[in-house]
Protein backbone atom coordinates (compact mmCIF):
# COMPACT_ATOMS: atom_id res chain seq x y z
CA UNK A 1 0.00 0.00 0.00
CA UNK A 2 1.39 3.42 -0.98
CA UNK A 3 2.32 5.78 1.82
CA UNK A 4 0.01 8.79 2.15
CA UNK A 5 3.12 11.11 2.55
CA UNK A 6 4.97 11.56 -0.79
CA UNK A 7 8.67 12.66 -0.59
CA UNK A 8 9.26 16.31 -1.38
CA UNK A 9 11.23 17.21 -4.55
CA UNK A 10 14.44 19.30 -4.10
CA UNK A 11 13.62 22.96 -4.83
CA UNK A 12 15.40 24.29 -7.99
CA UNK A 13 15.67 27.76 -6.44
CA UNK A 14 17.48 26.35 -3.42
CA UNK A 15 19.89 24.46 -5.70
CA UNK A 16 20.83 27.57 -7.69
CA UNK A 17 21.26 29.58 -4.47
CA UNK A 18 23.66 26.95 -3.15
CA UNK A 19 25.57 26.95 -6.45
CA UNK A 20 25.92 30.76 -6.42
CA UNK A 21 27.22 30.85 -2.85
CA UNK A 22 29.71 28.08 -3.58
CA UNK A 23 31.10 29.77 -6.68
CA UNK A 24 31.50 33.12 -4.90
CA UNK A 25 33.29 31.44 -2.03
CA UNK A 26 35.62 29.64 -4.41
CA UNK A 27 36.40 32.89 -6.26
CA UNK A 28 37.17 34.64 -2.95
CA UNK A 29 39.56 31.88 -1.89
CA UNK A 30 41.40 31.89 -5.25
CA UNK A 31 41.75 35.67 -5.38
CA UNK A 32 43.25 35.75 -1.88
CA UNK A 33 45.58 32.88 -2.60
CA UNK A 34 46.99 34.51 -5.75
CA UNK A 35 46.63 38.14 -4.79
CA UNK A 36 50.39 38.66 -4.96
CA UNK A 37 50.94 36.65 -8.11
CA UNK A 38 53.19 37.92 -10.92
CA UNK A 39 50.19 39.03 -12.97
CA UNK A 40 48.98 41.22 -10.12
CA UNK A 41 52.43 42.70 -9.55
CA UNK A 42 52.92 43.28 -13.26
CA UNK A 43 49.66 45.23 -13.47
CA UNK A 44 50.45 47.21 -10.33
CA UNK A 45 53.88 48.13 -11.70
CA UNK A 46 52.42 49.63 -14.86
CA UNK A 47 49.64 51.37 -12.97
CA UNK A 48 52.28 53.08 -10.86
CA UNK A 49 54.00 54.39 -13.98
CA UNK A 50 50.77 55.95 -15.20
CA UNK A 51 49.67 57.50 -11.92
CA UNK A 52 52.77 58.35 -9.89
CA UNK A 53 54.29 61.50 -11.34
CA UNK A 54 56.83 61.62 -8.51
CA UNK A 55 58.49 58.34 -9.55
CA UNK A 56 62.14 58.35 -8.43
CA UNK A 57 64.14 58.11 -11.66
CA UNK A 58 67.29 57.17 -9.74
CA UNK A 59 65.87 53.76 -8.91
CA UNK A 60 65.63 51.20 -11.73
CA UNK A 61 62.08 50.07 -12.40
CA UNK A 62 61.74 46.33 -11.83
CA UNK A 63 59.99 44.40 -14.57
CA UNK A 64 58.82 40.92 -13.71
CA UNK A 65 60.60 38.04 -15.47
CA UNK A 66 58.65 36.53 -18.34
CA UNK A 67 58.45 33.13 -16.75
CA UNK A 68 56.21 34.57 -14.02
CA UNK A 69 53.98 36.64 -16.28
CA UNK A 70 50.68 35.74 -17.85
CA UNK A 71 51.71 36.20 -21.48
CA UNK A 72 52.85 34.04 -24.37
CA UNK A 73 56.64 34.53 -24.12
CA UNK A 74 58.03 31.10 -24.85
CA UNK A 75 60.44 29.19 -22.65
CA UNK A 76 63.17 29.59 -25.27
CA UNK A 77 62.95 33.38 -24.83
CA UNK A 78 63.50 33.46 -21.09
CA UNK A 79 67.11 34.64 -21.38
CA UNK A 80 66.09 37.82 -23.24
CA UNK A 81 66.43 41.19 -21.50
CA UNK A 82 63.57 42.04 -19.18
CA UNK A 83 63.02 45.39 -20.92
CA UNK A 84 62.60 43.60 -24.26
CA UNK A 85 60.03 41.28 -22.70
CA UNK A 86 58.28 44.26 -21.14
CA UNK A 87 58.00 45.91 -24.56
CA UNK A 88 57.43 42.99 -26.93
CA UNK A 89 55.03 40.88 -24.89
CA UNK A 90 51.29 41.17 -25.65
CA UNK A 91 49.71 44.16 -23.89
CA UNK A 92 46.03 43.91 -22.96
CA UNK A 93 43.87 46.70 -24.37
CA UNK A 94 42.30 48.73 -21.51
CA UNK A 95 38.80 48.43 -22.99
CA UNK A 96 38.99 44.82 -24.08
CA UNK A 97 38.55 43.38 -27.55
CA UNK A 98 38.99 45.80 -30.46
CA UNK A 99 37.56 45.12 -33.88
CA UNK A 100 40.34 47.24 -35.38
CA UNK A 101 43.03 44.93 -34.02
CA UNK A 102 40.79 41.84 -34.12
CA UNK A 103 42.24 41.13 -30.69
CA UNK A 104 42.12 42.15 -27.06
CA UNK A 105 45.89 42.81 -27.07
CA UNK A 106 48.58 44.81 -28.85
CA UNK A 107 51.80 43.00 -29.77
CA UNK A 108 54.51 45.58 -30.54
CA UNK A 109 56.63 44.71 -33.60
CA UNK A 110 60.26 43.72 -33.15
CA UNK A 111 62.41 42.16 -35.86
CA UNK A 112 62.60 38.41 -35.29
CA UNK A 113 66.37 38.28 -36.01
CA UNK A 114 66.87 40.39 -32.86
CA UNK A 115 66.74 37.18 -30.82
CA UNK A 116 69.62 35.71 -32.86
CA UNK A 117 72.00 38.19 -31.25
CA UNK A 118 71.18 37.98 -27.53
CA UNK A 119 74.46 39.53 -26.34
CA UNK A 120 74.07 42.62 -28.52
CA UNK A 121 70.37 42.81 -27.68
CA UNK A 122 71.06 42.55 -23.95
CA UNK A 123 73.53 45.43 -24.19
CA UNK A 124 71.07 47.52 -26.19
CA UNK A 125 68.20 46.94 -23.76
CA UNK A 126 70.25 47.51 -20.60
CA UNK A 127 69.55 50.98 -19.19
CA UNK A 128 67.86 52.75 -16.32
CA UNK A 129 64.13 53.11 -16.99
CA UNK A 130 63.11 56.79 -17.09
CA UNK A 131 66.79 57.74 -17.21
CA UNK A 132 69.31 58.38 -19.98
CA UNK A 133 70.02 55.86 -22.73
CA UNK A 134 73.62 54.76 -23.26
CA UNK A 135 75.46 56.58 -26.05
CA UNK A 136 75.25 53.47 -28.25
CA UNK A 137 74.38 54.54 -31.80
CA UNK A 138 76.93 52.09 -33.27
CA UNK A 139 75.40 49.20 -31.33
CA UNK A 140 71.85 50.07 -32.45
CA UNK A 141 72.87 50.37 -36.10
CA UNK A 142 74.80 47.10 -35.93
CA UNK A 143 71.67 45.32 -34.67
CA UNK A 144 69.54 47.01 -37.32
CA UNK A 145 71.85 45.98 -40.16
CA UNK A 146 71.87 42.41 -38.85
CA UNK A 147 68.11 42.30 -39.39
CA UNK A 148 66.92 43.43 -35.96
CA UNK A 149 64.48 45.83 -37.57
CA UNK A 150 62.55 47.57 -36.28
CA UNK A 151 64.63 47.97 -33.16
CA UNK A 152 62.64 47.59 -29.93
CA UNK A 153 61.48 50.77 -28.28
CA UNK A 154 63.26 51.86 -25.12
CA UNK A 155 62.12 53.79 -22.04
CA UNK A 156 65.06 56.17 -21.78
CA UNK A 157 66.20 59.51 -23.20
CA UNK A 158 68.66 59.30 -26.13
CA UNK A 159 72.12 60.82 -26.05
CA UNK A 160 71.87 64.47 -27.07
CA UNK A 161 74.10 67.44 -27.75
CA UNK A 162 75.26 69.35 -24.68
CA UNK A 163 74.49 72.76 -26.20
CA UNK A 164 72.16 72.46 -29.16
CA UNK A 165 71.97 75.35 -31.63
CA UNK A 166 68.72 75.97 -33.52
CA UNK A 167 68.91 75.04 -37.24
CA UNK A 168 69.12 77.63 -39.98
CA UNK A 169 65.69 78.74 -41.23
CA UNK A 170 64.31 77.65 -44.57
CA UNK A 171 65.31 78.10 -47.34
CA UNK A 172 68.80 78.97 -46.05
CA UNK A 173 69.11 75.58 -44.36
CA UNK A 174 68.81 73.69 -47.66
CA UNK A 175 72.34 74.64 -48.78
CA UNK A 176 74.10 75.64 -45.55
CA UNK A 177 76.33 73.33 -43.51
CA UNK A 178 74.74 72.95 -40.05
CA UNK A 179 76.42 73.74 -36.75
CA UNK A 180 78.67 71.05 -35.27
CA UNK A 181 76.58 71.29 -32.11
CA UNK A 182 73.68 69.61 -33.91
CA UNK A 183 75.45 66.23 -33.81
CA UNK A 184 76.48 63.69 -31.16
CA UNK A 185 79.85 62.77 -32.72
CA UNK A 186 80.76 59.74 -30.59
CA UNK A 187 79.99 57.15 -33.29
CA UNK A 188 82.03 58.76 -36.08
CA UNK A 189 85.70 59.08 -37.01
CA UNK A 190 85.25 62.78 -37.85
CA UNK A 191 84.20 65.06 -35.01
CA UNK A 192 83.29 68.12 -37.07
CA UNK A 193 81.57 68.88 -40.36
CA UNK A 194 84.80 70.47 -41.60
CA UNK A 195 86.48 67.08 -41.22
CA UNK A 196 83.66 65.39 -43.16
CA UNK A 197 83.84 67.93 -45.96
CA UNK A 198 87.62 67.51 -46.31
CA UNK A 199 87.83 63.73 -45.95
CA UNK A 200 87.56 63.20 -49.72
CA UNK A 201 90.98 64.87 -49.95
CA UNK A 202 92.63 63.68 -46.74
CA UNK A 203 91.25 60.17 -46.22
CA UNK A 204 92.43 57.24 -48.31
CA UNK A 205 90.18 54.57 -46.79
CA UNK A 206 86.68 53.95 -48.17
CA UNK A 207 83.65 55.61 -46.63
CA UNK A 208 80.11 55.63 -47.92
CA UNK A 209 79.33 58.84 -49.83
CA UNK A 210 82.68 60.30 -48.87
CA UNK A 211 82.15 63.67 -50.60
CA UNK A 212 78.43 64.07 -49.84
CA UNK A 213 78.79 66.57 -46.99
CA UNK A 214 80.43 69.18 -49.23
CA UNK A 215 77.37 71.12 -50.37
CA UNK A 216 79.50 73.31 -52.60
CA UNK A 217 81.02 70.35 -54.44
CA UNK A 218 79.34 67.72 -56.59
CA UNK A 219 76.12 67.94 -54.57
CA UNK A 220 75.55 71.45 -55.94
CA UNK A 221 75.31 70.13 -59.51
CA UNK A 222 73.44 66.86 -59.11
CA UNK A 223 70.33 66.27 -61.29
CA UNK A 224 70.43 69.71 -62.88
CA UNK A 225 71.39 68.66 -66.41
CA UNK A 226 71.62 65.64 -68.70
CA UNK A 227 75.15 64.32 -69.14
CA UNK A 228 77.29 61.18 -68.74
CA UNK A 229 76.38 59.47 -72.04
CA UNK A 230 72.72 59.99 -71.24
CA UNK A 231 72.91 58.12 -67.90
CA UNK A 232 72.37 61.28 -65.84
CA UNK A 233 68.73 62.28 -66.17
CA UNK A 234 67.81 65.74 -64.93
CA UNK A 235 64.95 66.20 -62.49
CA UNK A 236 63.15 68.53 -64.87
CA UNK A 237 63.21 66.07 -67.77
CA UNK A 238 61.84 63.34 -65.50
CA UNK A 239 59.06 65.57 -64.18
CA UNK A 240 58.19 66.53 -67.77
CA UNK A 241 57.08 62.93 -68.38
CA UNK A 242 53.96 63.55 -66.25
CA UNK A 243 51.36 66.30 -66.20
CA UNK A 244 52.50 69.36 -64.20
CA UNK A 245 51.68 69.05 -60.52
CA UNK A 246 50.96 65.29 -60.55
CA UNK A 247 54.33 64.37 -58.97
CA UNK A 248 53.81 65.55 -55.39
CA UNK A 249 55.18 62.99 -52.91
CA UNK A 250 57.80 60.28 -53.04
CA UNK A 251 60.78 58.42 -51.63
CA UNK A 252 64.53 58.40 -52.23
CA UNK A 253 66.13 55.08 -51.21
CA UNK A 254 69.68 55.42 -49.91
CA UNK A 255 69.71 59.13 -50.61
CA UNK A 256 72.99 60.13 -48.93
CA UNK A 257 72.54 63.68 -47.59
CA UNK A 258 69.16 64.15 -49.30
CA UNK A 259 70.18 66.50 -52.11
CA UNK A 260 67.59 64.80 -54.33
CA UNK A 261 64.91 65.63 -51.75
CA UNK A 262 66.18 69.23 -51.54
CA UNK A 263 66.02 69.62 -55.34
CA UNK A 264 62.47 68.28 -55.30
CA UNK A 265 61.48 70.54 -52.40
CA UNK A 266 62.57 73.51 -54.48
CA UNK A 267 59.91 72.29 -56.92
CA UNK A 268 57.23 71.93 -54.19
CA UNK A 269 57.56 68.12 -54.09
CA UNK A 270 57.91 66.27 -50.77
CA UNK A 271 60.47 63.45 -50.72
CA UNK A 272 61.43 61.27 -47.74
CA UNK A 273 65.02 60.00 -47.77
CA UNK A 274 66.20 56.66 -46.37
CA UNK A 275 69.76 56.70 -45.12
CA UNK A 276 72.01 54.88 -42.66
CA UNK A 277 74.67 56.58 -40.53
CA UNK A 278 77.71 54.78 -41.98
CA UNK A 279 80.57 56.68 -40.29
CA UNK A 280 78.73 59.95 -40.73
CA UNK A 281 75.69 61.72 -39.23
CA UNK A 282 73.60 61.40 -42.40
CA UNK A 283 70.17 61.43 -40.73
CA UNK A 284 70.99 64.43 -38.55
CA UNK A 285 72.43 66.30 -41.55
CA UNK A 286 69.32 65.56 -43.63
CA UNK A 287 67.03 66.87 -40.89
CA UNK A 288 69.20 69.96 -40.43
CA UNK A 289 68.73 70.78 -44.11
CA UNK A 290 64.96 70.85 -43.57
CA UNK A 291 63.88 67.62 -45.26
CA UNK A 292 62.78 64.31 -43.74
CA UNK A 293 65.14 61.39 -43.00
CA UNK A 294 63.88 57.82 -42.72
CA UNK A 295 66.24 55.57 -40.73
CA UNK A 296 65.57 52.16 -42.28
CA UNK A 297 67.71 49.65 -44.14
CA UNK A 298 67.09 48.32 -47.65
CA UNK A 299 65.80 45.09 -46.07
CA UNK A 300 62.86 46.77 -44.34
CA UNK A 301 59.42 46.67 -45.95
CA UNK A 302 58.66 50.19 -47.12
CA UNK A 303 56.40 51.84 -44.49
CA UNK A 304 53.77 53.11 -46.94
CA UNK A 305 50.35 51.87 -47.97
CA UNK A 306 49.78 50.37 -51.41
CA UNK A 307 49.38 52.64 -54.45
CA UNK A 308 50.20 55.92 -52.69
CA UNK A 309 53.53 57.45 -53.85
CA UNK A 310 54.06 59.41 -57.05
CA UNK A 311 57.77 58.69 -57.45
CA UNK A 312 60.52 56.47 -56.00
CA UNK A 313 64.17 57.22 -56.76
CA UNK A 314 67.39 55.40 -55.91
CA UNK A 315 70.94 56.14 -57.03
CA UNK A 316 73.82 53.60 -56.79
CA UNK A 317 72.32 51.78 -53.79
CA UNK A 318 70.15 49.20 -55.57
CA UNK A 319 72.81 47.20 -57.38
CA UNK A 320 74.51 43.81 -57.60
CA UNK A 321 75.80 43.83 -54.02
CA UNK A 322 72.25 42.94 -52.92
CA UNK A 323 71.28 39.23 -53.21
CA UNK A 324 69.11 38.87 -56.30
CA UNK A 325 66.13 37.32 -54.48
CA UNK A 326 66.13 40.14 -51.94
CA UNK A 327 66.40 42.65 -54.78
CA UNK A 328 63.41 41.03 -56.49
CA UNK A 329 61.34 41.46 -53.31
CA UNK A 330 62.51 45.08 -53.03
CA UNK A 331 61.55 45.97 -56.60
CA UNK A 332 58.09 44.50 -56.04
CA UNK A 333 57.80 46.53 -52.83
CA UNK A 334 58.59 49.68 -54.81
CA UNK A 335 55.93 48.67 -57.35
CA UNK A 336 53.50 48.13 -54.47
CA UNK A 337 53.84 51.62 -52.95
CA UNK A 338 53.75 53.48 -56.27
CA UNK A 339 50.33 54.60 -57.44
CA UNK A 340 49.21 53.61 -60.94
CA UNK A 341 51.07 55.97 -63.23
CA UNK A 342 53.80 56.47 -60.61
CA UNK A 343 57.49 56.61 -61.61
CA UNK A 344 60.45 54.49 -60.49
CA UNK A 345 63.73 56.24 -61.29
CA UNK A 346 66.49 53.62 -61.10
CA UNK A 347 69.56 55.85 -61.19
CA UNK A 348 72.96 54.29 -62.05
CA UNK A 349 72.23 50.67 -61.17
CA UNK A 350 75.53 48.84 -61.68
CA UNK A 351 76.66 45.26 -62.28
CA UNK A 352 78.88 43.18 -64.59
CA UNK A 353 77.58 43.04 -68.16
CA UNK A 354 77.04 39.27 -68.11
CA UNK A 355 75.01 39.63 -64.89
CA UNK A 356 72.86 42.30 -66.47
CA UNK A 357 71.95 40.20 -69.49
CA UNK A 358 71.41 36.96 -67.59
CA UNK A 359 70.01 38.11 -64.23
CA UNK A 360 69.11 41.77 -63.75
CA UNK A 361 67.43 42.77 -67.01
CA UNK A 362 65.01 39.79 -66.82
CA UNK A 363 64.49 40.46 -63.10
CA UNK A 364 63.58 44.12 -63.60
CA UNK A 365 61.37 43.34 -66.61
CA UNK A 366 59.45 40.73 -64.59
CA UNK A 367 58.05 43.35 -62.18
CA UNK A 368 55.53 44.82 -64.63
CA UNK A 369 56.80 48.36 -65.18
CA UNK A 370 56.54 50.13 -68.50
CA UNK A 371 59.90 51.42 -69.79
CA UNK A 372 59.94 55.20 -70.31
CA UNK A 373 63.74 55.56 -70.47
CA UNK A 374 66.32 52.74 -70.53
CA UNK A 375 69.97 53.80 -70.94
CA UNK A 376 72.99 51.49 -70.62
CA UNK A 377 76.60 52.73 -70.33
CA UNK A 378 80.02 51.55 -69.20
CA UNK A 379 81.21 51.95 -65.59
CA UNK A 380 84.92 52.75 -65.78
CA UNK A 381 85.84 54.15 -62.35
CA UNK A 382 87.44 50.85 -61.28
CA UNK A 383 88.95 50.04 -64.64
CA UNK A 384 87.62 48.73 -67.99
CA UNK A 385 88.91 45.21 -67.37
CA UNK A 386 86.09 44.56 -64.87
CA UNK A 387 83.51 44.96 -67.67
CA UNK A 388 81.11 46.78 -65.35
CA UNK A 389 78.13 48.74 -66.59
CA UNK A 390 75.46 51.19 -65.49
CA UNK A 391 71.75 51.16 -66.12
CA UNK A 392 69.70 54.33 -65.68
CA UNK A 393 66.00 53.66 -66.18
CA UNK A 394 62.76 55.55 -65.79
CA UNK A 395 59.95 53.06 -65.27
CA UNK A 396 56.22 53.70 -64.96
CA UNK A 397 53.66 51.64 -63.10
CA UNK A 398 50.82 51.03 -65.61
CA UNK A 399 47.96 53.47 -65.21
CA UNK A 400 45.50 50.71 -66.11
CA UNK A 401 45.58 47.02 -65.26
CA UNK A 402 48.54 47.45 -62.89
CA UNK A 403 47.26 44.55 -60.79
From TrEMBL:
Cellular localisation: Endomembrane system; Membrane
Matching InterPro entries: Prob_Methyltransferase, Put_SAM_MeTrfase, SAM-dependent_MTases_sf
Record has Membrane as a keyword: yes
GO biological process: methylation
UniProt key word Repressor: no
Name of one Pfam family that matches: Methyltransf_29
Membrane topology classification: Single-pass membrane protein; Single-pass type II membrane protein
A molecular-function term among this protein's GO annotations: methyltransferase activity
Coiled-coil parts of chain: none
Keywords: Glycoprotein, Membrane, Methyltransferase, Signal-anchor, Transferase, Transmembrane, Transmembrane helix
Superkingdom per UniProt: Eukaryota
Transmembrane segments annotated in the record for this chain: 12-30
Entry GO CC: endomembrane system; membrane
Signal peptide location: none
SUPFAM superfamilies reported for this sequence: S-adenosyl-L-methionine-dependent methyltransferases
Stated family: Belongs to the methyltransferase superfamily.
Protein name per UniProt: ATRAD3
Organism ancestry: Eukaryota, Viridiplantae, Streptophyta, Embryophyta, Tracheophyta
Amino acid sequence: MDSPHKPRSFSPNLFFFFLLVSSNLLTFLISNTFKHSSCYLYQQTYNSIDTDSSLNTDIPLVVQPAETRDDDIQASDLDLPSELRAFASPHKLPFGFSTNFDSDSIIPPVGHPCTRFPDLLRRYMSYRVNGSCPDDEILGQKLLLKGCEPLPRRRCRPAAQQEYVEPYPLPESLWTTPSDSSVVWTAYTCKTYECLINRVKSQKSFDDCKDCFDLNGREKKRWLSTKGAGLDFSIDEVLAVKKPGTIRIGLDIGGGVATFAVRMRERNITILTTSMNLNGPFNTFIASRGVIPLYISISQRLPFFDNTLDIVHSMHVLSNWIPSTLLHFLFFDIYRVLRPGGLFWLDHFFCVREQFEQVYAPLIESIGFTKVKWVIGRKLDRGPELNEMYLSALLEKPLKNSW
